[in-house]
From TrEMBL:
This is Acetate kinase. Belongs to the acetokinase family. Pathway: Metabolic intermediate biosynthesis; acetyl-CoA biosynthesis; acetyl-CoA from acetate: step 1/2. PROSITE patterns: ACETATE_KINASE_1, ACETATE_KINASE_2. Keywords: ATP-binding, Cytoplasm, Kinase, Magnesium, Metal-binding, Nucleotide-binding, Transferase. Mg(2+) binds at N7, E384. Its EC number is 2.7.2.1.
Length: 396
């Protein structure tokens, strides 16, 4: 079966067409600037990327261009829509309603809509993508795969905030966690690589990208994760602050005359390693280059980021009363050996011993701890699109 995987943002749409039998990516691409001027980047397997400017007033036109590209007589990879057996949609927030992926029905669509308050920047865009596909592919089954679903196994002691209980009862204010599709994929692969059943391994997954989170996976279940009600909680990230003292908000609001919108913009867009580096960059390559040239704020940003990751690893080792595998994944986790080394220097108490040569590898699945290390440390490239396709096929 060929599965079309859709990841829809407010003005963008990423896609991959995956053959579920071979798990080969037949084609992939990106629609950008939807509603503005619009462009489509399209790449069939083994071919060069081609970028074309196209008017895309809405996501419906964007989906239509994707379908046209996939079925094009010259550059397409399928002859018609009949060769696409299902569509898997990434949906950011499923609240407490969804503990697993689901086939999309009218009732499911409405339930996702009811979670919009929890993810106002993401869920409405995800729903727009679903509606556009339903309009253009009315006979094709569709599945929603939630970023939050994997973390629905967290116990109350892990997801409750120290707030009045009524806010949980009335508004479901609690920790949900994100990057669940990635954490699930990587933890399963880690178990395969160490040759143990998934339900008998304690794994800490470090999904380190511009958005970053750490997850404790005990015997195949997420028992804690660093992100919270929103993706703002947890690690210092590219431009997000991560954990801070809540009283800082009142202090800065008074000093800078900021309202709630201004504060949230500061926390989400102007903080993290970008803010710490004195606005040098949120790209870790720029930070590393800056630090090597003696840029003190860049060096501090890298140190703060790595220290925070190490602290979360330590807390999750305690939460699970031990750890078998630590896995690094996503853009930074897969490619930045310097950051991995800075994190691992804090983990000697766990018996972690780093293989320096292996740690210099970029973007490959590899064990970066020595054979004598008491905890196996790995780099495992994530593949959220493949995970979505697998979930979709399993349900369809």
């Amino acid at each position: 079966m060929n599965v079309l995987v859709i990841n829809c943002g407010s003005s963008s749409l990423k896609f991959q067409l995956i053959n579920s039998d071979s798990e080969q990516v037949l084609a992939k691409g990106l629609c950008e600037r939807i509603g503005i001027d619009g462009s489509l980047t399209y790449q069939p397997a083994g071919e060069e990327k081609v970028k074309t400017d196209k008017e895309m007033p809405t996501h419906t036109e964007a989906i239509q261009f994707v379908i046209d590209a996939l079925t094009d007589a010259q550059t397409g990879v399928v002859k018609s829509l009949e060769e696409i057996g299902a569509v898997g949609h990434r949906v950011v927030h499923g609240g407490e309603k969804f503990a697993s992926s689901v086939v999309i029905t009218d009732e499911v669509y409405q339930a996702i809509e009811e979670c919009n308050d929890l993810a106002p920047l993401h869920n409405p865009a995800n729903l727009i993508g679903i509606a556009a596909c339903q309009k253009l592919m009315p006979g094709t089954p569709m599945v929603a795969v939630f970023d939050t679903a994997f973390h629905q196994t967290m116990p109350q002691k892990a997801y409750m905030y120290g707030l009045p209980y009524e806010y949980y009862e009335k508004y479901k204010v609690r920790r949900y966690g994100f990057h669940g599709t990635s954490h699930s994929f990587v933890s399963k692969r880690a178990a395969e690589l160490v040759g143990k059943p998934y339900d008998q391994v304690k794994t800490i997954v470090c999904h380190l990208g511009n958005g970053a989170s750490v997850c404790a996976v005990e015997n195949g279940k997420s028992v804690d994760t660093s992100m919270g009600l929103t993706p703002l909680e947890g690690l210092v990230m590219g431009t997000r602050s991560g954990d801070i003292d809540p009283a800082i908000l009142e202090f800065i609001a008074k000093k800078e005359n900021l309202d709630i919108a201004g504060l949230m913009n500061m926390l989400n867009k102007k903080s993290g390693v970008f803010g710490l580096s004195n606005n040098l960059s949120s790209d870790f390559r720029d930070l590393s280059a800056g630090a090597a040239e003696g840029n003190v704020p860049a060096k501090i940003a890298l140190e703060v980021f790595s220290y925070r990751v190490a602290k979360y690893i330590g807390s999750y080792a305690a939460a699970m009363n031990g750890v078998d595998v630590i896995a690094f994944t996503a853009g930074i986790g897969e490619n930045d050996g310097g950051v991995r080394e800075m994190v691992m220097q804090y983990l000697g108490y766990l018996g972690v011993e780093m293989d320096e040569k292996a740690n210099a590898t970029r973007g490959e699945e590899i064990t970066i701890s020595t054979p004598d290390s008491k905890v196996t440390v790995m780099v495992i490239p994530t593949n959220e699109e493949l995970a979505i396709a697998r979930e979709t096929v399993a349900l369809i």
